[in-house]
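hey so u asked for the seq, here:
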Amino acid sequence: MIIKTNRDQLEGVVLLMSELLVDNQPSDIAELLVFSLVKDAYAKMRAKTETIMAPRSGYSINLTDLQAMALYIFLQNVSIPQSRYQYEAIQIQSISDKIHQQYGVIKPNYLQKALTQ
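ran it, structure tokens below
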């Protein structure tokens, strides 16, 4: 899944995600699985923001299906401090909405493809 952002949006997401990852450590194996996938997605985002020159692909992030779904699950289960991170929270909500649009209703052919791999 490709999430299109500009540099400012992505930097905001990385800022808030870094705090959310520190404040929401996993407490069981299921949370650890989601947390690991979210950390991988975060690493991709952070790498894009730390480049000196603008990447060829711009500041869009290409997440695997599992990373996108884990990010959605993670974001649905954390509390975002809206008063301190208003802009960043809007960007996070936008990403969450895009993921939900793509994966919210799982189509039968997607399940069949997943089961045959």
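The longest strand covers residues 2-3. The helical segments are 7-23, 29-49, 65-76, 86-103, 108-116.
lmk if thats what u needed
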